[in-house]
Amino acid sequence: MKRKLIAAIxxxxxxxxIASCGSGSGSGSGKSTSAKSITVxxxxxxxxxxxxxxKSADAALKKSHPGVTVKHExxxxxxKNTKLDAVLATDKAPDVVEMGNTEMLPYSIKGAFxxxxxxxxxxxxxxxxxxxxxxxxxxxVYGVPYYAAARVAxxxxxxAAAAGVTSTPKTYSELTADLDKIQSKNGSKFNAxxxxxxxxxxxxxxxxxxxxxxxxxxxxxxxxSLSSAxxxxxxxxxxxxxxxxxxxxxxxxxxxxxxxxxQGKSAMMYGASWEGPAAADPKIDKTGGKLKANLVQFVLPxxxxxxxxxxxxxxxxAVPVKSKAQxxxxxxxxxxxxxxxxxxxxxxxxxxxxxxxxxxLKSDPATAVTATAAESSWFIPTAPGWGTVEKQAIxxxxxxxxxxxxxxxxxxxxxxxxxxxxxxxxx
Length: 427
Fold this sequence. Notes:
The chain is an alpha/beta fold. It has 20 helices and 14 strands. One of its GO terms (biological process) is maltodextrin transmembrane transport.
């Protein structure tokens, strides 16, 4: 699932207060010896969709520590960080807080979260790469992956069949050949693949598939690498897709992709696994109900010959460094994210936080596509200035310039590198 990175200025405002507390030693620090309660902040996703899991984790902690109470506060994604920034500068910080995986980095850099001992958490040696990267900074771990969501391709089998395509593609050459047939059958105003140009998650998947990267790190310094030969190769292929199959507004992002797909003028989209079902919702579907019976998900094949690397969206749980109950918080997190709890999350349509349980989903037709897609993933550079990179929309602007022809691939990548290098190493 997509999480917006918090503005760097918000974290900077609380940095002075946090710094006075030190970096924290995390679990095992002794800060829980006299604690009688913990406060857990979760998003409304948990409150609405798996409240029984919350109760189970509470019960496990209370069983191990008689007399301990667990208090919960629930927040929407839009409200949580504003509240968090305010309390982290006081002595009212929660003991556990849920974070979107792209939200973790600036807080970790500023020392807002306690370092955690991974040996205290189930399946930590098998955490999904995309989630493990989100909780790690400078070789230390500041959070625990909670659950994940992968990106998959979805298309209409009725539209494909009308163009003579009767099965989903297994290779990139098959994909483009099929899309060519679909595009030809439906005309130049139809989107064989509805792919918004400003969707940097997909754009960077093409870069990763080609062996490129947004930036590389050496000696603690990050250097933008979008103008490298490999990255340019990926960006060039992204441009080819948009040019050939995307005939909508070339200045749009992916926020309303599923809504536009639901209008019935597209055959395929590539996005979070929930987007297809969302488009088929009767409130969104403008095709007369055709979507529900005709949508088919598949793992997007990449030009490299392997599955397209995906950006893994998801949530993490962290322990604020000012928590006075870090040991209890650590136990609660393990109860909430451990092997048994992941089974509950899987039953609710999520992907688990680890490859061990993910492997079991590949044999179930209902989860095989998303589970397979999640096996190959990439993550943002864990650089001090990444928040500024995203806030300035450098990647989105680059991709739009490429898609619209305002700049050549090489020039757009070169300009993006210059913009990134100005800010990526500065917190």
